[in-house]
Amino acid sequence: MPIKSTIRSLILLCGIMLIACKRFDEPTAEVPVPQSPNMAIEDLREQVAGRRVTISEPIVIGGYVTTSDRESNFHRTLCIEDATGGVEVMAGIYDLHNIYPEGSYLTISLAGCAVGEHYGILQVGTEAASYSNYPTDYFSSRILLDRHVQCYDLRQNVAPLPVRFEELSPALCGRLINMQSLYRTALSPSNESGTWSGYNIFADPQGNTIAVYTSAYASYADEVVPEQEVSLTGILQYGDVEGEDMYIIKMRYEKDCTIAH
User: Fold this and answer.
1) Which of 130, 155, 180 is the last residue in one of the domains?
2) 230: which strand partners?
3) Structural domain tally of the chain?
4) What is the pLDDT of residues 54-113, one digit of tens each?
């Protein structure tokens, strides 16, 4: 037999043996394993303590996406949540619901990122200008965002945390919450039209109040706010509402307000 034919036969035989040795129940592609967070969001909040901080240590946090910009009440930002708290990511790009769908698992490598609090929420982004009133700025490009934020093919929809007025606290800001038995009050001086746009004030039967903020760019901004008893779901904030500091719910979409039955 010619030498070339012999070599080809040996190569073919080796290939057949390798195929025979491979288990056909083995996956053909590896699923990326999430980078392990080394700090809880609650601990990061305590470390930042309301300051503007640029992180130099190799800190990694992780959590599931709790927001959507599909109805435009969130604008170029998204929130994630672990078992201890929530964080807002200043992503800086549009159509985030297609890139980071609700329930997706993200890890954020904080080295080189700026962290601060805005409306009570811990934010992660880039350093803001010294004259800026904001603690952080948006990531300037998708390339920069991808250096810090990794999305994995793991899904878990985060159930909103049921909260009563007496349970509200700054530590809950940034988390997805739900409050029951609320009524829109007549105490909304900047929003007499009865639509969602701007601030609406809701109260429970005991007279405790909470605001709901809706961007004028939200797809449901011009829809009328129900006057019946409602349940409200959204990301908890805390800050100035027409001269008064109070807790605020920022809904993701109109169906976050449901009429009680």
Assistant:
1) 155
2) 182, 259
3) 2
4) 999 999 999 999 999 999 999 999 999 999 999 999 999 999 999 999 999 999 999 999
